[in-house]
Amino acid sequence: TAYRRQRQMCIRDRVTTENGTTEYKLDTNSSYVVPIITGYTPSINGQELGFNTDKTAYVLDQTSGAPTGGTTVPTISDIAVSYAANEESVTVTAGGNKTGTAFTYTVNGGASQTGTYGTALSGIHYDDVVVITPDTQTGYDISADKTTVNVTDDTTNNTVTVTYKANDQEVYVNFVEENTGCLLYTSPSPRDRSLS
Question: First vs last Cα of the chain: how many Å apart?
Fold first, then answer.
């Protein structure tokens, strides 16, 4: 189940008609600016609101899914603007890893899930917190530019880079006398190693 935060704002317009009754409605000749909350998409009664041409605000009018009005005071459920967190892309890449190496991650402290390097995680939303744990790989040191992502709408912020670096290894060469099979010398010898 995707974790989503929602925020609400109630919009009401009270109009007194010619016969003296009070009506609550959204005027067809007016538009109402709905505040933008970065990373969230507003909707009314399940219908998403569209951007203005200047991309700075949403407009609410009669075609937006809001009720046309009536003589009863609207309730929040009638004309509430709901804000749902946008789905965002989070990607974990790796270098130096062996084929089949993966990672685990949690979203908002939930159950551990398995991810594949280079493939975007699904079901991640704005404001989620994703914690990454790279798989171990024998003989390698692992480093990551970060292990926690506070998800935003910035692709750079939502990318994690993991690096696998092979540990230094020592190779010993034994020199053996061909006729006798006796060990003549090991390189590097313990004495050679102590001098380095």
Answer: 58
SS (H, E, C) the chain: CCCCCEEEEECCCEEECCCCCEEECCCCCCCEEECCCCCEEEEECCEECCECCCCCCEEECHHHCCCCCECCCCCHHHHEEEEEECECCEEEEEECCCCCCCEEEEECCCCCEEECCCCCECCCECCCEEEEEECCCCCEEEEECCCEEECCCCCCCCEEEEEEEECCCCCCEEEECCCCCCEEEEECCHHHHHHC
pLDDT in tens, 70-105: 545 444 445 567 788 899 999 999 999 888 899 999
Contact partners, residue 30, CB within 8 Å, separation at least 6: 13, 61
Tell me which of 2 and 137 has the higher pLDDT: 137
What's residue 125's pLDDT?
95
Cβ atoms of 13 and 25 closer than 8 Å: yes
CA distance 132 to 109: 11
pTM (predicted TM-score) = 0.64
Measured in degrees and rounded to the nearest 5, phi and psi for residue 93 equal: -110, 160
Is 26 a residue whose pLDDT tops 80? no
